[in-house]
Amino acid sequence: MMVDPTLAEMGKNLNEAMKILEDGGKASDPDADRRQFSRSSIPGPLQGDGQDVASILQLVQNLMHEDEEEDKPSHRRMQNVGEQGHMALLGHSLAAYISVLDRERLRKLITRIASDTTLWLCRLFRYESGSAYYHEDDREGLLKVCRLVINTRYEDYSTEGYTVLNSRQPVIYQSATCRPGLGQHLCSQLALPLSSLCTVPCNTMFGSQHQMDIALLDKLIREDVETGKLPLLLIANAGTPGAGHTDKLGRLKELCEQYGMWLHIEGVNLATLALWEVSSPVTAATRSDSMTLTLGPWLGLPAVPAVTLYRHEDPALSLAAGLTSSQPVEKLRALPLWLSLQYLGHDGIVEKIRHAVELSQQLLEKLKTLASIKTSVEDELNSPVVVFRFSQETSAESSGGSVEGYFAGEREVLDSLNRWLCEQLAQLVPASGVDIVELEDEGTCVRFTPLMTAAALGTQRCDVDLLVERLIELIPVLNCTLRLRLDFREEVYRHSALSYIEDLSWPGLGAVRYEPRVEELTDSKRKLEVEKINSELLVKLGDLDADLIFSTGLEFGPEKDCIFIGMATEDLDVAELVDTIAALGRDIEENGRLLENMTEVVRKGIQEAELQLQKDNQDKLMEEGVLRQIPLVGSVLNWFSPFQSTVKGRTFNLAAGSLDSTEPTYSMKAQTGGLVSPETPTSSAKRLPGQRLFRREGAGGSDSHSETSSVGQAEDFSRERFPQPTTPSPVQDEAVSVVPESPEIPQVPAEPEPTQEKGEVGTQEKERQPDGQDAPVEETGR
């Protein structure tokens, strides 16, 4: 068989490029090492001689992995680009190569590619007699369909333009659960006023709260017709973006036929049309006028276009609307999809979709057995989307009293806990592909959509089992934290120096701030003092041997200069925790005051010491006489008639800020009067060996369980999210040693030569001082 050498070279280059970009390998060129680009040496302007393919690919690889050290590998979801992905990428290269063929060969080739792909998709998704439009933006197909409907309903639109719309204003109807911003995008692209967009609310009394209210839709259409407006198009969902629910498509189709409207359907549940057994609500989508399919996420194909299937008999209007093109190159958009569909085959495509649906059913069955988990699934037998959330135990009792509605802002707290739960599950089981979804009625939920993620992440049944195991381990932590929040708030209120911070968005025990007790400070100084104390307090709490996580809170949170406590366990002693926080904060405040007053104390003490030294020197001079001051005569006189001075030494006590005599030191051979700072009151004496802080004895939880469970991993993740500031620890009272350095201090007069008795005393002064005593600074005339 004859092989085009260009195609063979293209496939070879693609394989080599994928190896370099995916595996981080080297180029096959032996000189590639010397042409590697470092992050700091990437050139800005173009090089004069150009570069080869291997060098350019190496540059692309460096740019792709530029922040690899900063990003955590467990947090990133890299798509598994398998062989079918390589076929899709090869399609883009082939499209560029095919576009240079002569016009006749190009026309025949693109006609074959477009017709084959359209026929396969229409048969695969049971959409008979349909045409296909391939587009990169998944909203572009709906936009072209709107142009087609406008051209169809307004006969003079091609000649008169938008002036014909003034006679009867067109109206586009969409569900309240449609993608955010979809209707506004259509109006802006079609140059229609926002009054042409009508959002239909969902059911409030009967049926799913995520389905369009058909009775209300009928009423809105009749009102628009009576006011002279033209119902143009209805956008329905076969799998809402949030909860994955499907509108009653059969009833909506009948309503559209009644008023001559166009029915467009989109949603992830359209993928189930390829299965042998399809639920009846989704089957009705085959009767729609158009629908949009996103095959890339469903099948794990990178960079393949979305497809909009539609039915229309007038090719001229389709050409005017942009659904078809006379440019051959634009029709090559289907080439990556054409290659990928052939590589997977019918059975491969159906198997991928079936596997995703089975994963959803597997998770749903396991979630039904968990008491604290509520699910929001429309069709329990065949739903590819599972939405669940943590909900408090209605039958549980705790020390905090009743759980159901026991504090204000319960909805916000549950939302924050569910947000934390989703983050932990996504970190612990990255192959699950769970994400956060905000629903109007349910609040914050965890969503599992394997149709959109399983093919790319390679999700398997074992990943679902692991997801449930991690969920079971995290549920007790959520229940305990929810029950102990009230106890924590009440304990904080018992301490006048602590302020409870109400932050409902924090997923944890709560937040507290230590307030200094000095009231004469100005607002600016008080703010700085609060910031300093709480910063040092956070560091001290982080150094404790405890399972709790202390942080500064959310990065963009409203509360600052406070301490946030993370998730709690069953055996947490809240009273001991709050008492420890208050005691540490009090110690930091007192130490800070001591350091602030130390400068003034030392200054006054030095001044007093100078005066005392001058007085002692004068008294000593008067006692010894003038003859003893003469160098030679004084030595001889002291030899024959030793003189013992009555002037005693002085010590400067930094803690008391006073001058004391050295007589007790000489007599007792030890320093006295030292102040010892009281230690932080904790229950360390009451704790058992190996027991960590803030644990109650005999509690339901055990140390071994907490250390082996995934809660430790989850708390490590919290440490990564909320880094703690590295503030230096304050100086302890018993370790204060101040050495004043002032150029204004005069030199102390020289001490006369000591006698033998004084020499012995001096030796005694050098003895080691006992621990826990203040080290006095001796001020003497000697």
Automatic annotation (TrEMBL):
**The PDXDC1/PDXD2 second domain, residue ranges:** 383-482
Taxonomic source organism: Oncorhynchus mykiss (Rainbow trout)
Instruction: Return the protein name.
Output: Pyridoxal-dependent decarboxylase domain-containing protein 1
Q: What gene makes this protein?
A: LOC110538690
- Please report a single Pfam family linked to this protein: Pyridoxal_deC
Query: Locations of Basic and acidic residues compositional bias?
Result: 23-36, 755-771
Which family does this protein fall into?
Belongs to the group II decarboxylase family.
Composition bias type Polar residues, residue spans: 659-670
| Cofactors required | pyridoxal 5'-phosphate
Report the residue ranges that make up the PDXDC1-like third domain in this protein.
488-593
- Residues of the region (Disordered) are 23-50, 657-782
This protein's UniProt keywords: Decarboxylase, Lyase, Pyridoxal phosphate
**Gene Ontology biological process terms in this record:** carboxylic acid metabolic process
Q: Which GO terms describe its molecular function?
A: carboxy-lyase activity; pyridoxal phosphate binding
Highest taxon of the source? Eukaryota
